[in-house]
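The instructor's notes for this session suggest beginning with a concrete chain rather than abstract definitions. Hand out the sequence below and ask the class to guess, before any prediction is shown, which regions might be ordered.
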Amino acid sequence: MPLLFYIPSWASPVIRINIIDAFFCADSLPSSPTIIINKEVLLAKNATKRCDQKDFSMDRYHGRKVLESFIREYKGKRIIEITPIVVFNDAGEHDLVAWQEAFSKKWQEGKSYNLLAIGIPFVKREDFDKSEIGKRISFDVMTYSAKKQSGRHVSASHFVFPSDLELSKVKVISKEHFPDRKAHHELYGNSLSVVLGLVYELNKLN
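After discussion, reveal the predicted structure:
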């Protein structure tokens, strides 16, 4: 059953969002009267939901950080329905088949937005174009994506899906879009600035 499922009878149409990431463990997150959180969808193979601990700081729970940030930042009046989709396995690896399924009609139909605070690095653009991701994934739903950020697995020379795609349906957000949120950026960098980008738009809706 969905979590946080109180919906006022006067509500405007529900805005449905996919958050595609690592594990979420949403059951213990703060509730909100305007946010529905559907059951976590484990699309990756060898992905085991483990939520019986107190420490969620590991990269394994990056999806939880994204979702927690969304709940904290959203102040709008519209009802938001979030589907958390896991595309990483227990080893912390991308499951490319899971990525393809996440962008299939089954999970994209009826959605208003995808939120991606993660991406898939390729050594060069040609590698992406030849991959099943490059051949099979298309964007019919507006997708907010974190700008590429160099780190343990990503260098400045990498081509990162989807943030390096120049598409009208992919909106790339970085910390430079929100210069007044310095403390937030010091904690999260570009990764969660994309949450601010989408929530900023949603908070303006009546």
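Then share the key points. The first helix runs from residue 62 to 73. DSSP finds seven helices and nine strands in the chain.
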